[in-house]
Design brief:
about 240 residues, alpha+beta, 2 domains, five-stranded antiparallel beta sheet, 5 helices, about 10% strand
Amino acid sequence: MHSDFLSALRAREQVCPRGVFDDRACDDAYGPCPAPHVRRRREAITQLSTAQGKGAVIESPASSPIPSRTLCERKDFMRRKASERGSVLLLEMLIVVSILGALLAFSAPSFMQMRMSQQAQQALATLRAIQNAESFYLQIYHNGYVDPGVLAGTGIAVPATCDAPLLLGGAQAQTQTNGYFFQFTPGPALAVLGAGCTAPGSTTFSLTANPESGRGRSFFVNEFGIIHYSDDGPANSTSPPWFW
């Protein structure tokens, strides 16, 4: 029986020389690595065979003799290391995801604040453009103040006239743009009809710009050309003036 066991070990050593870990070839030919208590029993048998002079040490093709149980221990060691490495990688991934989530949570409010500030600046620029166009229209045509859509003359060909002065771009005459609502309100009194005009404008007007989300800075301007702002609801003529 001892000789059969040693022959099996020698055959396994030929299939699995030191430094080559082909688990499929070894397991298919001679079965998986034995359990620790089985390996201890085999080691005892090998030591007994050594004492009897039957050669417990097997010559490895890798040029140096090694105990027959070394390959199985190496395979078990490699499997344990692979399992431990997989657990470490999962833990590292969870840590990275947690850090990214924390950074996102801290940066989201700042990003929203920056976006609201940018939209407010764009709304302020549109408000100034409309107010300047209203002033130019009054000076050129003497027809009061008209709707921004009339100032843009959308769809009307050149040359410019009182009914299509082309003082604004089509984007600036829109009632909703860049996250803001724009509302033009003409005054109740009509102006004197200007020369070459078909409909009179008004003697006064007001223009507001309010954020779509309801959060952010609102603006107000009228025929006096002073822009007012409010951070708590829609702005009006009593709101603080904007000097920037």
